[in-house]
Amino acid sequence: MNRLCKLSLWITIIVINQHIEALVIPYLSFRSQGINDAREIAGWQTFINRFDMDSWYGTFSITPEYTRSFRTYQLADYLWCDALAPEFDYTIKTPGCCNDPLIRIQGTKVPDRRANALMAENFYLPTDFKSDVHFRPVIENFLIDFNVYIGLDNLVQGMFFRIHTPICRTSWALNMQETIINPGTNNYDPGYFNDTFIGSGAQPFQDPNAFGISRTQLLKSFSEYIQDGKAIEGVTDINYEGLAYARISRNKLTKTRLAEITAAWGWNFLSSEDYHFNINIRGAAPTGNRPQAFWLFEPIVGNGHHWELGAGVSGHVCLGRGESEDKDLSFYIDAYFTHLFNTRQCRTFDLCGNPLSRYMLAMKFTDSAQNLRADTFPMPFANARQFTPVANLTTIPVKVSALFQGEFLFKFAYTVRNFQLDLGFDLWARSCENIQPCDTSVLSSNLWALKGDAFTYGFPGVSIATGNFTIDQPGIALSASESKATIFTGTNNYPFGLKTEGEPLAWNQNPGIDNPQQANNASDIPLYTHQIGHATPSATDGWDLVRTSSLPQFFDDTDLGINRASTKSYSLKFFSHLNYTFACSCWTPFIGIGGELEFGDQDEAFGCSQCRKHCCNSNCATDQCPGATCCTNNVFSCDKPGCTTCSLSQWGVWIKGGFAF
Questions:
Q1: Would you say the pTM of this structure is higher than 0.85?
Q2: From CA 474, how far away is CA 524, in angstroms rounded?
Q3: CB atoms within 10 A of CB 91
Q4: Domains and CATH numbers, the chain
């Protein structure tokens, strides 16, 4: 179910669980490494917010920390959802070798092809190609957090200034491994991808195995497409472009930066030995990196390069002391919220209602075609002999902001002489992103359409004399588009074809394209295509009349799934810290060790079960998902904002040391 992202109080984000249609997230926006109230407040609370000072004082700390993500299935769901193989046991939800998420790459002509396998032809692979692709996504951070607190009681009683920034080295790895089950031997059918064909004998068109593009010119693996950005080469006068954005790296990607510089200025207006309460103004200056969209699993340090401004409160109360006053139990709270101002980022988007369409193939069209008719009507449109992944078109600069992010922490601190033990809970949330394109006419100046499994060229078939038929080369560019194609399949329904107006049409006749009409050239000579191996005796030697779109369906800027790419985020964290304070009169050193366990929440639509009950697509096969309720059509809307929960689950350990002065 869809709901508008309603934001008033940050706690509302935490308690409301929105249910939306299944989708994938092209960009994962998680909590900044610099936003961690548990790490910031642990261990030094007795040296800050002091009540008995009449001059300035301070505390300095250094905190090295290592964090690592878990819940591998959760990260895979965000990135692939519908494409994940049902055999992956999502009910176990335990990362490991046997549970590595899996997607399948299968060509249109693979026997018993899976409905949620990604169509191999989108990746310049043969129609009988078959491989399994495993992922084990991991995010690791090693950081050193520098924290300074200065009490300004010499100016105003209870006033303070606090600043901190971590320098972070982050590593993101999808750990992709492809197992090729069948490298494929099929050539492409004549007219499927190019305007010439090769056959044996004096009349090549009479060869049942005549083909358009040889297997040797195609890619050898899905990895070559998505990791190396390779494409078909060696075809004259036709441009096949490789994937330029949203690629997957062969190695882990790392980035080292300051996350952001966060500062707070505040006033302890209530203060005594047993309690304190303050208010503060909080801001952050961006020093991390911005998303560039070159990689799918892109390493980010910081908050995406947002400036922040907000306010916060903190306080504590002593719950009890021992008779010797060397023991006490105190309760601490800390909370804040900040607004994330507009920042410029580069992101890749899918088309509305078409998850993972960024990896589909698009065709560029010309509006000045001279030699094509749809039935008897001259067609101005025809493909312009250029093919490119959709991601190359839908990667655009955008402005991103968020109404707020907030964090709420409480903890109990038990002190025995020089030792102190903290046990606490931390809650963090970020409201729904507001994403606006910097340029609203990115695609409008060109004509682009989805290819799917459409045949894109037709060949004139000429009857020379009674019973004598020939096919001419080169072929003529068609205007065929498949706006309803998905990453999983085209619309020509191989191998059965379709019935159009009661007439059965073969797969290679383009029965499933948009607005199909018989294709002719400007001289009203019919155009034909041919299936490899089709040898039915006929006057046309196995060549079939082909359709073209009388009105191709182009996509433009209004079809970008920008609203659907917006995410919100929240997580729950448990933490503990054991600290020791050295007895010194002037400079007071302290050191401690701590750890945290953070659980990132996930929308139910992403809680993909083994049978994919929530993540379904228009081609979901119920025989593969017993008992599953599958979608019968895509119901995504471009004009209704979506707001998907996207959070990271991770654990971390730290050592915190410093001194008070």
A1: yes
A2: 17
A3: 10
A4: 10-101+136-176+248-351+390-444+556-660 (2.40.160.40)
